[in-house]
Design the sequence.
């Protein structure tokens, strides 16, 4: 069992409930997509699974261990086996791509090796291979501030691929890419995950990408799981219920008012 | 409705503020017994003129120049060795005093646990003590311990500047974007690695530039400390002044000017290369 949540809830410090009573079980090697409207709690769920946030209540079990009852050292060892892909990868602008990718293994390296790697990259072939999977091998020695948003996202994915964790959590991993590139990157990620037997959870805004690439779809709305089904059983009515938004104002039917002319005297 | 104002509406407040400033400054002038007219009295002006006239021409005989070169190198060595020692103390202290390395801050939205915040206070107060005592007092203390000479200067600079560097480095670490470091700690890396990969790349340029500025300050401070016998150019200036050798003092002041200019240029070079 890769992860197990029973009755997990999360309340932010300002009292706002982000998740409530989440029950979810994911087996080792399973791949699932999390979809849902903005603010539904997708990112909170992934941050919770990455142990970046402790749950407010309920039981959380990752890779057979309960992270928040472990000692700090043991929790860091557990964290090294989990990889989180950020929507906007937090990379220092002046860092080189090769260093950013190799930093994925810092949790597995000794301190001496980590510091030595800062002076001279110790595993250039490894970093190049991870970047080549995402067609970025030519950017190996560029600085992160020279890359576009989509390229940075792929560097973030390459770092997690290089980390080679047992569980990959991806928070909107392809949101800054064009549709073709997004589809390609998602299939690379899925391929790598299934080839190496990693568990993959990805939150996605693009429903058609989720349906096309993942064998299991979880719909989240208002911090609760609305459905947990294979893509073949997801009907348009279900998606309408997931994304229904009563707060949006209906667009006005009347034509826009005539432009107002403002006389600005020149002085 | 939109009748143009005839007076600047800010004029009255500005006038009142200026008057208030004058009222506040007047007692200060009285207390410090400042009276610039004294400078212009013929007797005093002649005295000062004589003192300054001694400065020309700057001394440049071979023997003095070799002495000057030695003293300059000694000053540079005091400043550099003092800064190196200061950095050795300041870096660990800054890491301990800032929340950049806090593991508990990662899952608490950037705020470390209360005991972690409490644990920073001993280091912070140590840094405060180190820098609140002026370097000249440390120098006097160390001159008594290790005798006249550059060692006292090095120790005094190391102690005072460790306090300043530690405080400012800690603040530089905390003002950087914490997310790269937090992301690494969530991926299982240790604190020091997360610092080296997540914060140091953004902080290093600022740290280096501050370090070079402090090095320049240390050169100036080592001259002042020379007056209490801590070696270097300052000790020579003190000796020459006592012997009323104005030319020698002038040469040393020119050397000093060149040193500060050099530090300024190095700092500018490093900044343009790194920032």
Sequence:
């Amino acid at each position: 069992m890769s992860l197990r949540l029973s009755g997990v809830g999360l309340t932010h410090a300002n009292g706002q409930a982000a998740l409530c009573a989440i029950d979810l079980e994911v087996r080792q090697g399973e791949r699932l997509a999390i979809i849902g409207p903005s603010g539904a709690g997708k990112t909170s769920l992934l941050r919770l699974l990455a142990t970046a946030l402790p749950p407010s209540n309920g039981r959380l079990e990752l890779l057979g261990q309960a992270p928040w009852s472990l000692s700090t050292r043991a929790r860091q060892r557990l964290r090294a086996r989990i990889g989180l892909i950020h929507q906007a990868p937090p990379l220092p602008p002046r860092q080189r791509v090769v260093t950013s990718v190799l930093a994925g293994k810092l949790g597995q390296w000794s301190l001496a090796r980590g510091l030595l790697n800062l002076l001279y990259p110790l595993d250039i072939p490894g970093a190049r291979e991870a970047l080549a999977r995402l067609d970025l091998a030519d950017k190996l020695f560029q600085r992160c501030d020279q890359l576009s948003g989509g390229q940075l996202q792929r560097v973030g994915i390459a770092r997690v691929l290089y980390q080679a964790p047992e569980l990959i959590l991806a928070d909107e991993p392809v949101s800054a890419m064009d549709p073709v590139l997004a589809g390609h990157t998602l299939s690379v990620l899925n391929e790598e995950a299934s080839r190496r037997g990693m568990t993959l959870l990805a939150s996605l805004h693009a429903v058609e990408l989720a349906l096309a690439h993942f064998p299991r779809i979880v719909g989240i709305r208002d911090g609760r799981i609305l459905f947990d089904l294979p893509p073949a059983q997801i009907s348009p009515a279900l998606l309408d219920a997931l994304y229904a938004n009563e707060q949006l104002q209906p667009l006005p039917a009347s034509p826009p008012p005539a432009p107002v002319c403002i006389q600005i005297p020149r002085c | 409705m939109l009748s143009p104002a005839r007076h600047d509406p800010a004029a009255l407040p500005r006038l009142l503020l200026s008057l208030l400033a004058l009222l506040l400054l007047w007692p200060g002038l009285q207390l410090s017994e400042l009276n610039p007219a004294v400078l212009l009295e013929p007797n005093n002006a002649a005295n000062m003129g004589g003192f300054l006239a001694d400065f020309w021409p700057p001394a440049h005989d071979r023997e003095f120049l070799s002495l000057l070169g030695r003293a300059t190198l000694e000053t540079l060595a005091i400043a550099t060795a003092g800064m190196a020692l200061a950095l050795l103390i300041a870096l660990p202290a800054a890491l301990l005093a800032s929340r950049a390395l806090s593991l508990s801050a990662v899952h608490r939205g950037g705020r470390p646990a209360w005991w972690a915040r409490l644990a920073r206070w001993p280091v912070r107060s140590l840094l405060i003590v180190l820098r609140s005592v002026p370097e000249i007092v440390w120098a006097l203390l160390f001159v008594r311990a290790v005798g006249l000479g550059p060692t006292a200067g090095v120790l005094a600079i190391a102690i005072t500047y460790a306090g300043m560097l530690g405080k400012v480095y800690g603040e530089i670490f905390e003002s950087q974007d914490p997310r790269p470091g937090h992301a690494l700690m969530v991926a299982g890396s240790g604190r020091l690695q997360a610092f080296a990969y997540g914060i140091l790349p953004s902080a290093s340029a600022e740290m280096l530039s501050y370090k070079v500025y402090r090095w320049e300050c240390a050169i100036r401070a080592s001259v002042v400390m020379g007056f209490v016998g801590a070696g270097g150019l300052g000790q020579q200036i003190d000796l020459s002044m006592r012997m009323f050798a104005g030319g020698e003092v002038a040469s040393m002041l020119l050397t000093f000017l060149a040193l500060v200019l050099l530090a300024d240029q190095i700092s500018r070079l490093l900044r343009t290369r790194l920032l």
Observations:
- The mean pLDDT of chain A is 90.
- The CA atoms of residues 174 and 182 of chain A lie 5 Å apart.
